[in-house]
Structure formats: structure tokens, C-alpha cells
Amino acid sequence: VRRAALLAALLAAASGARAALGPRYGGELTIALPRFGASDPRAAHTAADRVALGLLDDTLVRLDRDGAVRASLAAGWSPSALGREWSFRLDGSARFHDDSAVASSDVAASLRRFLKSDSSAADALAEALVGGSAFRAGASADLPGLQVTGSDSVTLLLSRPSASLLASLAAPAASIRNDGGRGAGAFAPVLEVPGRRLLARAHPGHVRGRPFLERVLLLARARDPLAEAGLASGGGAADVQALLLLALDASRPPFAAPELRSALDAALDRTDLSQRVSGALPRFGFSQPAPRSAASPSARRFSAAVPLAVEEDVPPAVSQRIVALLGSLGLRAEVRVVPGAEIRAADAVAKLLLFLPEVDEPGLLLREAAGLVKLERLRARVDAADAEPLAARRRELLREVEAQLLLERTLLPLAALPVGVAAPEGTHGLRFDAVGRLLVEDAWREAR
Amino acid sequence: LTLRARLLLTLAGTAAIPILLFAWAVDQRLDRVADEQLRRRLGTAAASLRPRLEASRTRLVRPLQRVLAALPELGDAPTAEAWSRLAEQNALDALELVGAGDTLLLSRQWPAGEQLRDDDRVLDEQLGLRLEKVAQGHAFVERLLLTAELPAAFRGKPARLRGGVLLDEPLLLDWSAAAGAELAIVRAGGEERWSSAGSALAGMQLPSLEAGAGGGEVTAGGRRVGWAAQRLGPQLFAVAADAAAETAGGLASDVARLAMAFAGLAALLGVAAALLLSSGIVRPLERLARASQRVAAGELSAEVPVEGAHEIAALGRSFNEMVDDLRRAQQRVAQAGRVAVWRDLARRLAHELKNPLFPIQIAVETLRRAWDRQGAAAPGPEFRKLFEELTTTLLAELLSLRRIVDSFAGFARMPEPKLEPTDLNALVDRVLDLHAPHGSHVRIERRLAPDLPLVPADADLLSRALGNLVRNALEAMPEGGVLTLTTRSLPRQAEIAVADTGPGLDTAQLFRPYHTTKPDGSGLGLVITQGIVSDHRGELDVESAPQRGTTFRLRLPVAAAA
Asked: For residue A273, which residues of chain B lie inside 8 Å, CB to CB?
């Protein structure tokens, strides 16, 4: 199994250990990715795309992997009116890559663009924001819920309390850019060959100060970058979990038949699948599907052709097993390999994809997952949970949504795959945040 | 088409068509021979597949036995890597363990199917031909394998150990190379077939194979491909195909190309030859045609250049002679016309002069007689003397005038020649003999051709004409000289030349009547001579140079022209 199938290898000359001396400025890091393409944060669905975003863009707030919300471009925020009014004060030191100051008007414009995107986090925010749904649907150009209250402050007016508000604002699609399209991330682009190469240099006007590394080079390589570079996993490795999902379209045959979905779900041996990819058992926000020690072949045989779209980064061991399982049910899989950026929009009755949540927050994750299989009725329940002010009650509601989602058997979690970065020795401080962005801003390399 | 174009086409076609016909015949023959050889070879190749399959299947048993022996060492849960390694060590592309209920327990080629029912298709149980799923990309491909099975035990339960090798690569490829033809296994109906990668058989449209063995030829990818089939099993056929027909076709094409090249070359040579020939044939003919048009337009001086001695040159010569004859005939006609006019004029003149001349003469004579009868009674002696002188002169002039009139009358009454074969040499001798007495002051030379043909002529008239010329020549040399008479034979003519060494004369007015250089000449001698020659359909030319003499040439047609 390719440990770094999705992401990267960091190519650099190994140096002697100087970790004891602490972080140092300077140095260059080369990151080889299988591919990357999205320069628009609103279309960054794959982990590879989010590596670039982690370099170039920043959001009002950040969400750490432990669920803690941290300040970023917004130096602070304060709720009032029983959680219906949120005021954000911008950090005056933040500057875009063209050295212009990050102003509240830039924030408002970026959030308006965010609300128009297909992001599920934007969907959650629009549901709560006054006039947000109409604005998102294009019914109105006005957005009374978003107000610029000063040169360095914006205020969000909500129609109801929203537990996922801050997490929504941490979504990659909510990155703040100015009218010139310049971001405010820790690294500024110097040279970009779209989809092939991106050279970025340290941005001194970053809100948290100049990063340690001087330059970062992203390279797209078709083959496994880890094997190509001949690097072994070393210090500084970090990873996140991507969820391997089988999404079935219950509105079309043959998966319109609940018994077929049940038979397929029963045939899935998630323990076996996880072992095949050296992964773990899958989970959504709260629960894990019950593992089975062996597949349970259905006694019933179906006969149909199943157009199956497979995201190109899915490990073949899994996709082949799914094809075999479908075959054991009498279903003839017609496999079509689809790039990660297109898999969600691909027209197929079954999709096998790697799901890296836009924001790893239970409510937003369930909303995004329900959106994958177009379960609209679950969205209303997620909204209800989002409006619930009591955390315990909210968790309970979300558990129910998750159980219902799994019961539908249209979104079948198969395994959790580690999406790792292998760094050469002497590289420190690399980490992912809760939105799957690789944060390079705190990374540093030991002196040679 | 012009003669030149016809020549070009004829020669080019004559040169190229036989070569093309030869190439076509060679092509047909090559095709037949190649087809026969191909059919035999493909039949043998197709028949060789079954023994090869059986022998290869037998050879699978030993590696399977080795796997069977190594099975206990792997334990109850061998890893995929260990299982794959074991297959690789024994050169098995496929290796699987199948348990009860056809459950796939272990599979090298399709590990995704483990613990599921093995539903791979069996093409032929007896030959061990199976369509096995082989992992590829995110799914699998079905590959044709030659398999063998051994009973085994796994996890304490009976199982079957099945191993095999891929048929399409490299076995079919190797066997195809050995058989000299591409081999494939084809399911009855032809829709399913298995061959080596890149084989022409993959895309070939084969007819139904239900009938069993057979063969034929199909077109695949624009190429002719021969094929032969042999039954392998109830639903399977071994098919051999080869583009050897293509090779033969290629050879034939080479021949055809060469033939086309040679035909083109031959056509070019033919064209070149035609151009050369046309320059030798057509160009003279064209010149002849143009000259004919000029002659037809009245230009009798037209001549064509005559080169060489072949027929075209002979034609040119004949044309020139014909034009020459035409020109001479025209001159003769003109000359005869002039003579006729002159004769008519002479006759009228003689008639008009003779009538008053006679009474005048009678009157003068009567006057003289009357004068004589009166004697001395007449006037004085001076008058008498004058009277006698005048009347004497008058009578003398009348006599002279009478002689001239007689000459005119004689010229006008020139009889039609009575043509008889005449020896011109004898005629010359006779004339010279007749005039020799008057020519004692000159040297006379005779150059008579011994082989002179007889000429149709009126000897009397011709003697008169020749006599006129001899007399003129003698009179032109009062102080002596040389008179030469020459006879010679010309094409279709005989010539008499009368040459003197006199002072020469002006030839411009020579043949006009009443033109004379002699004090007592009538000016009719040469005109009469010309009239006689004209009546003989002959020609009379004169050449003269001052102080070098004059030559008259009298040419008469020989018998054929007469």
C-alpha cells in the first residue's frame, strides 16, 4: 500500500541532526505531489489541493485537529445576542501577498464568494446567516447577515445560533483573498506552472509572522513520489485520515433496491479492506460501523451492470475487492477512473472515493457526507442539531443523523486511510490542521 | 490524331503493353502459388496447437507438485507476498487454491476474489483452458490461461491447487513464431478470440467456424490475411493466420511496380523512338505536304530536300521529279502555245501579204515589158537608166518579200510530226554529213552516247530542227571554231547538245519570231526549231556566254513519255 499515495514526499538533502539548537530561519523544502491543480480554494476537494492552499491562503480562524478554534486573520471575536451576532476583529498586522493590508471589505467579499461556493461549510453558514439561504440560492444579492462594521471588523448576524459557525469559517473555501486574487498565507507564490510546479517564498506579512522556511517548491509527479525520491519516513512525519467511501445512488437502479444495498453492505468486510490498505476501520463523526471478521456473501444473486466511478487515488487493492464483491452479488462493475477533483460530480450509480472532510467537525462532516449521496432530509436534521445550544443534546442529535445515514446504506464507509507526509530527517514542525491543510508555516529544517 | 501522335501512341503502347501483360501473368501465378503454400502451412500450424497445449499442460504438473510440497511451510494464512513468490518461483502466472463450494481461498492473479466464489469461466475442461480474472488497475481483465489442477489440502480441508500460464503472452507468441503463423484460440461464432498482443487475428473478421476445420482469406486492416482453423474442442477452434499472402502480394506488388516502372521506361523509349522516327518520316512527309500545297498553289519551284536513300527519300525524289516534269510540261505547254500563236500570226501575215504582193509583181513586170516594147521612143537615157534600176530593185525586193512570205506560210503550215522510234545518234550523223560541206572552216566533234535509247520522233522534222541549230552554229563561227554535237541519256529523256565557240548571243529575245542577227535571216529559224521540238513534247534550252560560245540543248522524251 502506498503510504503516501495522495500527498507528498519532501525532497531535501539530509543533514546532521541539529534539532537541539531549535528552529532556524532559512532553507528550502521541495514537496512532490502526485498531482495538484486547484488554485481556487473553493474547489479544493483533494488533499493534494489543500497542500497548496495551506501554503498560500489563510482564513479568519483555524481549527486544530483537537477541535480547538484558533485565531488567524481574525485576532478575536465575540458573540452576543444569545449567539445570534458575531463580531470579528481583524489582526492589523495581516497583509496580503501584494503587501496590501487585510481589510474588512476583503473579508466580506471573500465570505460572499464562499457562500456561493459548493462547500458544505458554506451551506451550513448560509443556513444560519440572516439572508444567507436566499443569497446562496441567488434569489437575492443582499446579504444582511454580513456587515462591515469598521475597517478592521465584520459582524455576522444569524437567524439562529449555530454551533458550527466558527468551524465553517475555517473551511479552505472560506480563505480570504483580496480583489486581486492574492492570498494572505504564510508563503507567496513566485512562479506557477498550473498543475505542474509552484514555487513560493516566505511571506513576511503573514499574520503569524514570517515562516521559518525561505522557499517551498511544489512539484507534480505522476508516480509515487515517495518511491521516486527513495526517501524513507523520517522525523517530522504527519498524517491525517481520509475516509474511503462507497457512495451509491439510491435514486437509480440497481441501488434503488434497499435489499441490494443491504446485501452489498453485508458483503463488505471492513476489517479485510482496512488490512488490504494498511488502514484503520472507518468512522464518521462519532461511530464506527460494526466490523466483521469475514465477508457475508449474499445468498441472493442480482444481475446488473454497475457503472462504478473510482477516484484515481483509491488504492487498487480496495477497488479490486469492491469489484470482486459486486461480482459475487452478480453485479458487473464497469469501472471508470476519475480524477479526485471530478469524482463528486461524476455521473455514476456507484462511486468509490477518498473523503477528506472539508472541515473535520461532526456536524459539518455529516452535512458534507449527506450531500454526497443527496440525502436532503438528513440535512434538515443536521441543521436542527446545529441550532441546538446544548452541546450534549447536539451530539445526541448528530449521532442519530449518523446512524440514519449509515442505515440508509447509500454511503458505505470502507476504511480509513492515512494520508501521510514523509519528511527527510532534520525537518520539524510539519502538521495538518482539521481541514486537511498541510501547515508548513511552523516547519523548519536543521542546519547542515 | 496526327501521324506523329499515332506513331507515339503505337510505339509507346507496343513497348509498354507486353510488359504489363507479363507482370499481370506473373502476379496471377505468384498469387496462386503463394495461396497454395499458405493454405498448407496454415493448416499445419493450426493443427499444431492442440499437441502444444497438451504438452504444455503436462509440463504444468511438475511445478504444481512443487507448490503442493511447499504448501505446508506457508501455514494456514500465507501472505499474498509469499503466495505470489511461490508462484513466481515456479513460473506460474496463475496460482490459486480453491476450497469447498468453489470458494477461492488464495489467488495470485486475483487476490481481490479471495473468500468469494470462483466464477471464472471454463472454456475447455479437457484442455484446461480457463478465462481467469487477472488484477489490472482498479478492476481486472479476463485472460486466457492454460491450467492444470492437483488435489490438495488447506487448513485441514480438501482443496484444489490450480496453476497456469497465460496463453496470449508469451506462449501463443512463441508458438506462433515456431509455427510461422499467428495462432489464436477462437470460440465458435468468432466473437471471442485469444491471440498474442498485436496479432492480426485480434481484429480479423472471421466467418462462422461452426462447420469445423476450414480456411480462407479475409481482409484485415486493409491487408489480405489467410487463415485456417482446426477444431480444438466442442466450442473452441485453433486458428492460424498469416500475412504471407501479403508477402506474396507484396512480391506481386513489387513485380507490378517494377513492371510499371519498366513499362513507363519502355513507353518513354517508345516515345523517344517515335520522335526519332517521326523526325525521319513525319517531317519529310510534312515537308512534302507543304511543298504539295505550294505546287497546288502554282509555285512550281517548290522542292523538298532529299536525304538518304530510303523510301521517304525516294518519295521526295519522285515528288521533285514530278514537280520538275510538271514545270517542264508547263513550259512545253506555254512554248506550244506561243508557237501556235506565232503560226497563226505567220499564216495571217502570209495570207495578207501574199494577196497584194502578186498583183504588184505582175504590175511591175507588165510595166517593164511595156517599156521594152516601146524601145527608143521612150524618154532619155537617164530616165531609162533610172527606170530600170528602180524596177529591178522593186522586183528584187518583191522577190525577197515573197520568199519571206513563203517562209511564214511554211512555218504556219508545219505538219504534225509522225513519231517513229528514231536513233538520235544516226540523226546527228546525217545532219552533220549534210552540213559538212558548209563547215569546212570549223572543227566538228561528235560525242555520241553509245547507249542512247530510241526516241519517238519525226526524223525529217527533227533533222530540219537540228539542221537549223547546226547551221546557226556554223554561221556563228565564220572565222573558224569548234562545233560539238553531244548526245546523252537523261532520266526519261535523251539530249542532243549543239555547242559552238562563237562570240555568243543575247538569249533574251532568242526565241521570239522575226528576231535575227543575220542580214538575210527571216527570224523564223529558231522559232521553227522550237515549234518542232514542242511538237515532239520536247524542250529546247540555250546557254550562251560572250566570247565563249553558245550551246543549244534539245531534249526529247524517251519512249515511255511519248
From this structure: none
> Residue B376 to residues B331, B383, B391: CA-CA distances in angstroms?
65, 12, 18
Answer whether residue A226 shows pLDDT above 50: no
CA distance B6 to B25: 28
Give the mean model confidence (pLDDT) for residues A287-302: 58
* Pairwise CB contact (< 8 Å): A328 & B110: no
CA B106 to chain centre: 85
Q: Output the CA torsion sign for B367, B368, B374, B378.
A: positive
Cis? peptide before B519, omega within 30° of 0: no
**Is the pLDDT assigned to residue B61 strictly greater than 50?**
yes
Poorest-confidence range of A102-106, A170-174, B186-190?
Answer: B186-190
Q: Which of A4-8, A41-45, A269-273 has the lowest mean pLDDT?
A: A4-8
Q: Which residue of B has its CA nearest to A317?
A: B112
Mutation to test the A interface, candidates B138, B140, B155, most A Cβ within 10 Å: B138
* Residue A266 contacts B where some CB pair is shorter than 8 Å: no
Q: Do A337 and B113 touch (CB under 8 A)?
A: no
Q: What is the pLDDT of residues B434-488, one digit of tens each?
A: 888 888 889 999 999 998 999 999 999 999 999 999 998 998 898 899 999 999 9
> Bridge partners of B134?
B141
**Is A324 in the B-facing interface, judged by CB distances under 8 Å?**
yes
Which residues of A fall within a CB distance of 8 Å from B115? 269, 272, 294-295
Bridge-based pairing of strands A331-338 and A304-311 is parallel
More confident residue, B514 or B68: B68
Residues of B within an 8 Å Cβ radius of A:
110-113, 115-117, 119, 133, 135, 137-140
For residue B361, CA distances in Å to A253, B232, B365, B399, B408 come to 158, 147, 6, 8, 19
Using the beta-carbon criterion (under 8 Å), do A320 and B112 form an inter-chain contact?
yes
State how far residue A327 is from chain B, nearest Cα, in angstroms: 9
- Among A323, A335, A352, select the one facing B112 at the smallest CB separation: A323
Q: Would strands A28-33 and A61-63 be described as parallel, antiparallel, or unpaired?
A: unpaired
pLDDT classification of A35: cutoffs 50, 70, 90: low
Q: A359 is written with which cell numbers? A: 472541515
Summarised one tens digit per residue, pLDDT across range B228-266 is: 888 888 888 888 888 755 556 667 777 778 878 888 888
Determine, for residues A337 and B138 on separate chains, whether the beta-carbon distance falls below 8 Å: yes
Q: What is the mean pLDDT of residues B409-424?
A: 84
Report the chain B residue with the minimal C-alpha distance to residue A321.
Answer: B112
Q: Which of these, B187, B225, B229, lies nearest to B204 by C-alpha position?
A: B225
Asked whether the beta carbons of B454 and B562 are under 8 A apart, the reply is: no
ipTM (interface pTM):
0.78
DSSP-assigned letters across all residues of A420-435: EEE--TTEE--EE-TT
Contact B96, B104 (CB under 8 A): yes
As a dihedral over the C-alpha atoms of residue B364, residue B366, residue B368, residue B373, rounded to 10 degrees, the angle is -170
Q: How many CB atoms lie within 10 A of CB B475?
A: 16
Tell me the C-alpha to C-alpha distance, in Å, between residue B93 and each of B60, B62, B87, B177, B193: 11, 15, 7, 21, 20
Residues B139, A319: C-beta atoms closer than 8 Å:
yes
DSSP letter for A135, please.
H
Q: Could you give the C-alpha distances from A154 to A104, A135, A170, A171, B394, in angstroms and in order?
A: 6, 18, 16, 18, 170
Neighbouring C-beta atoms of residue B303, cutoff 10 Å: 15
Identify the closest residue of chain B to A338 by CA–CA distance.
B138
Contact A324 B117 (CB under 8 A): no
Question: What's the gap in Å between the CA of B116 and the closest CA on chain A?
Answer: 7
Identity of the residue in B117, B138, B140 whose CB atom sits nearest the CB atom of A328: B117
Give dist(CA B196, CA B194) in Å, integer.
7
